[in-house]
Amino acid sequence: MIDKVVTIMNRAGLHTRPAAALVKLAAQFQSEFFIYKDGFEINGKSIIGVMTLAAEQGSTLQLKFDGSDEAQAAQAIVGLFDRGFDEM
Amino acid sequence: MEPQKEIVLHGIPASPGIVFGKAYVFAKQAPRVEEKSIIENEVALELERLQHAVDRSEKELQKVLQLTEQKIGSQKAKIFEAQIMILADAVLFGSIRKRIQKDLKCAEFAVHREISKYQQLMMNSSDEYMRERAHDVEDVKNRIIRNIQQEKLISRFEPNSIVISEILTPADTVLFSRNEVLAYATDMGGVTSHAALLSRSLNIPSVVGLKEITKQAQIGDAIIVDGYTGNVIIHPSAETIERCSERKKEHELFDAQLKEIREFTAQTTDGKIVYLSCNIEFSEEAGNVHAQGSSGVGLYRTEGLFLRTENYPSEEEQYTEYRAVVEKSHPHKVIMRTLDIGGDKVVSSSASEENPFLGWRGIRVLLDMPEVFLTQLRAMLRASAHGEVWIMLPMISGIKEIRQSKEFLEKAKKELRDKNIPFDENIKIGAMIEVPSAAILAGEIAQEVDFLSIGTNDLIQYLLAVDRGNEVVSSLYQEFHPAVIKTIQNIINEAHRAGKPVSMCGEMAGDPVALLLLLGLGLDEFSMTPHVLPEIKKIIRSVSFAEAEEIARHVLDMKTEDDIKDFLRVNLQSMVPELLME
To answer: Would residue B334 count as lying in a domain?
Structure first.
């Protein structure tokens, strides 16, 4: 299992388009992917769940990856967060 | 058991016929969800229903998305994209399916419970944007639940049901009719709403505007719907049943008399011939053209085809349908109206406008969507190779729209010519006169086209600033308002001055009370819902044109609708005493 902490970089936050991009990327991996914020646990492969996070610019999220390809999943998804969902 | 007390409700008769049956109450708005358990061997069916509802919801949303993108822009369309993504959320639907399989709950409850969890989280957010998203989630949830319930409702339908509902959309009306529904009775709706028109063309008696029938009637109650008077009787007594059966017989007798004059021409006693034609929506109805003894189709509404399919029908699909109508109507002509979508006719559009009746509809939609327009024009042109077709443009408000439309028609013709596909080179094109500005410019418009057709339903609505579907003001919707009559007179006179024929395809053309007046004003063609045509023909054959002209002159001097209506009724009754007036 891999734990990572990321910060939302882009201005609009984790709104619909980034949420969709995130879920699509997560779906490419076997590993389970969960997001923790303010005590909530959200399945990162669920668009409705990710939309619920209401993560605005500057907020921090804890990511958890668990599975055979967890390393690749973590690298790809953390990369997406770091690039501000390619919206910067 | 003590017999239940008879309840009589008065509504607006929307489609004729007297019918005895059992109530099926259908709550359309705000789906109510009960926590119902299912048994093990129902699981598979329940899962299948869920899947169908999700598929259907997706198709609906794709259509809305497409419409929104084209008209409002991709920014707003994002909302629907997000809703479509939710429909594909594997985690969400995994948990919904688990509730059905493991907890043995019905599909709509499972959907409600699982989606509401997220909705609640979003609602609690302090972020405005997030609370907005909660509404989207609510929308998508209701859409799925509605689709599950609709499917269940239809599968539960017993024959001989009378569908009772708050309101019916055109799509519902058609959908239910496939399950041999006996009659419709609704709380809301006006006589000229599209659902009412549809129930008439499907020969399903209906009464609308009953205000509280969904509260009074229970599933399984014995009910009589009287589509002539607008009465609906719940738990009818033995005497009431007897009385209604008698009236049903009288009507059937009169109908039999009308059949006898079917093959005769619509000619007045002093020799004036007018054309009586049918308004139809489906190719299957084209059979009525001959069955009712009409002289063709005066209004073929092409929306039916567009509402039934999820996407825009292809040229080939349209051509097949139009050709069927043309061939069934042969040797008579068919006036085809180009797509008149908008207003109350848009299927399941959530891309709502503040003021749909003053918004994007009729020719406005077509001119904005050249591919849709050209495809339809090509299909109509191709159909014209098989019989006489006239093309009619809806919602014309000025000359420019006509000229633009004619350019499209020329383009469509050229495309066919280049491919050596046959069509009628001299196909006629006409304008529907339903917007007041077009009524005022009737003379100028008549010079641009081959014919005019008065669409009274919308014309009256726009002229009098009354929403015909709004029951609070629907009594102000007056066919016999002096301003309406003067407007009609102007359109007819101006068209004739330009040497062009003028027809009427609104409800008014099939109203026996209006007949003497319209005949006297010089209307050339009356196009109406097929079932009233024999009665109208009987009246025409019983009166003289000279008398009708005299009556019209007199009406033009009258000041109020009440006076005009009374005057026309009295005259009609004295001239055609055998009519069954309600």
So the answer is: yes
Could you report how far apart the first and last alpha carbons of chain A are, in Å? 30
Domain A2-86 bears CATH identifier 3.30.1340.10: yes
Please report how many Cα atoms fall inside a 13 Å half-sphere around the Cα of residue B132, on the Cβ side: 10
Partners of residue B130 in chain A, C-beta under 8 Å = 52, 54
The β-bridge partners of B525 are: B275, B503
Which of B78, B115, B125 has its CB closest to that of A16?
B78
B437, B560: one domain: yes
Same domain membership, residue B450 and residue B366:
yes
Mean pLDDT of B240-259: 87
Residues 28-47 of B with CB under 8 A from A: none
Instruction: Report the residue of A52, A53, A56, A87 to disrupt the B interface, i.e. the one with the largest count of B CBs within 10 Å.
Output: A52
Judge: A47–B115 Cβ closer than 8 Å, yes or no.
Answer: no
- Residue pLDDT, tens place only, B322-381: 999 999 999 999 999 999 986 444 444 445 677 778 888 899 989 988 999 999 999 999
Identify whether residues B362 and B500 lie together within a single domain: yes
- B557 in a structural domain: yes
Predicted confidence (pLDDT) per residue in A21-50, tens digit: 899 899 999 999 999 988 888 899 999 998
Is residue B451 helix, strand or coil? strand
Pair B138, B181 in one domain:
no
Count structural domains, chain B: 3
Residue with tokens 């619920």: A52
Q: Are residues B145 and B184 in the same domain?
A: no
Q: What residue in A sits closest to B128 (Cα-Cα)?
A: A54
Residue B459 shares a structural domain with residue B371? yes
Q: Which domain holds residue B412?
A: 275-575
Confirm whether B581 is domain-assigned. Answer: no
Among B289, B292, B381, B390, which Cα is nearest to B331's?
Answer: B289
Rounded to 5 degrees, φ, ψ at B521 are: -75, -10
Using CB atoms within 10 A of its CB, is residue A32 exposed (0-12), middle (13-18) or buried (19+)?
Answer: middle
Residues 6+ apart with CB under 8 A from B361: B340, B341, B342, B343, B345, B395
Beta strands in A11-58 (DSSP E): 32-37, 40-43
Tell me which of B75, B84, B91, B126 to substitute to probe the interface with A (most A C-beta atoms closer than 10 Å): B91
Of A16, A27, A49, the CB nearest to B118: A49
Closest C-alpha to B436, from B483, B471, B378: B483
Check CB contact of B111 with chain A, cutoff 8 Å.
no
Task: Tell me which of B252, B283, B303 is where a domain ends.
Answer: B252
Q: Are residues B121 and B220 located together in one domain of the fold?
A: no
pLDDT tens for each residue of B23-60: 988 765 556 788 888 998 999 999 999 999 999 889 87
Closest to B226 measured CA to CA, from B14, B469, B475: B14
Of B86, B115, B121, the CB nearest to A47: B86
B215 plus B279 within the same structural domain: no
Which of the residues B116, B130, B140 would you substitute to probe the A interface, choosing the one with the greatest number of A C-beta atoms within 10 Å?
A: B130
Please name the member of B78, B89, B130 whose beta carbon is closest to the beta carbon of A46: B89
Q: Decide if B338 is inside a domain.
A: yes
